Amino acid sequence: MQLAYKLSGEEQPGRPVVILHGLLGSADNWLSQSKQLATERPVYLVDQRNHGQSPHAEAFTYQAMAADLLEFLTEHDLDRPFVVGHSMGGKTAMFFATQYPEHLQGLVVADIAPRYYPVHHQQILAGLKSIPVDSIKSRQEADKILSERIPELGVRQFLLKNLTRKSEGGFEWRMNLPVIDQKIEQVGEALPADARYEGPTLFLRGEHSDYIQPKDEAEIHRLFPKATIETVAGTGHWLHAEKPDEVIRLIQAFIDSAS
Fold first, then answer.
1. What single DSSP character describes residue 106?
2. b or e along 127-138 (b: 16 or more beta carbons within 10 Å of the residue's beta carbon)?
3. pLDDT tens string 141-183
4. What global pTM score does this model have?
């Protein structure tokens, strides 16, 4: 699958970085942060399948998304980049690293562990499905409908970035909402018990997030024996949006040490 992407920085000597967004997100989620990393290297912001401007497909598994990433690296002739992934993107990055370890220099996983996660996006998906995209007249109308299920303005603004105007008028979802809704349980899939990546790895967790818990640390170190785990103070699951400078500082220091 030919994935859509955005490029920060020019072709430079530094080893490239590829960043993968989370569920219901897109390349734009890391656009401002990527510019800080792009002073010494090109940074590729990738839309994963069924998200952003990338193609839609019925298959929505981490195996498929890892294969997409391998195809992307081959297509753009990227030699062993650093791969950074947040949440669902972090799972994709973990699957990729354990299946294709020779194709990356190092791995950064933002606020997700290799374990199974039960489905917990039902309210969000129900809210998105409640919006009649074929008939709404404005984003404000969509936001009003979504607010009945999701009171947090910031969450609604993030989700409604997926709403786009059609050239012929009206709105549509940029993401593949029916497939994401149908196959949401696959997003929580655990890495295989025999998975292993022995390259340099950094796990970042938000201090107030429960996505990486103390009980996860033993499994992280078993599957990723060279992993270090850093906690970003004062952040939740969206640590890169809440403390972008600190997250980029940690990623930059990791890249410097692993290059």
1. E
2. bbeebebeebee
3. 999 999 999 999 999 999 999 999 988 888 999 999 999 999 9
4. 0.96
Q: CA angle 137-142-143, nearest 5°?
A: 135
Give the whole-angstrom CA distance, residue 5 versus residue 30: 12
Strand segments, DSSP code E, in 25-175 are 43-46, 82-86, 106-110, 163-165, 171-173
Fold held by 5-116+189-258: Rossmann fold (3.40.50)
Q: Where are the domains of the chain?
A: 5-116+189-258, 122-182
| DSSP class of 108 | E
Residue 202, phi then psi, degrees to nearest 5 = -125, 125
Tell me if 116 sits within 8 A of 189, measured CB to CB: yes
**What residues contact 6, with CB distance under 8 A and at least 6 apart?**
27, 28, 31, 44, 45
68 close to 75: Cβ distance less than 8 angstroms: no
Map residue 82 onto helix, strand or coil: strand
